[in-house]
Design a protein that fits this description.
alpha+beta; Tetrahydropterin Synthase, Chain A; elongated; 2 domains; 7 strands; two-stranded antiparallel sheet; five-stranded mixed sheet; disordered N terminus
Amino acid sequence: MPFQRRAFFICNQHGPTFVLISVHVTFPSWGLYFYHRLFNNCFMTHPLSLYRMGHFNAAHQLAISTWSMEKNLETFGKCANPNFHGHNYEVEVRVTGHVDPETGILINLKDLKAIIEREVEDRFDHKNLNLDCPEFKHKVPTVENICVVIYDILRPFIPAELDLGIKLYETPRNYAEYPARII
């Protein structure tokens, strides 16, 4: 018996799109297999992004030691305060790639959580980034630089076939993303 459907889909760069039609489309018996095979292959060829959030509290000062206090204040404003100031940082880790068709997962979230805790949160939480973290001994700990440092720290722990992206919120309104996604 032929297979009848009122809907079909189009595979494009955004994934399968279902389109309703008003007439019956009749597939021969082999068409049902082809229909499901085409859908599964189309869906699995598009990458998926998985996100995990992390959090740490840290203090820093934005200043360049070879500059005068006036020039630092002019450039960095109150963030150049020599007594430091702190933030509640939120880090968003994005892993992008193809879902394993057998397991249905992109990356084990338990493993990703442990990597973020060990390599980012434990390293930076309740630290003075300027004084306690060697990553910023010769680098101003701006949100941009911290974001790139976190990327560099995590990249070796993420399988090479997966893309990694970091979004670091210094405040709810100020954040950096690396690598930048160019639209």
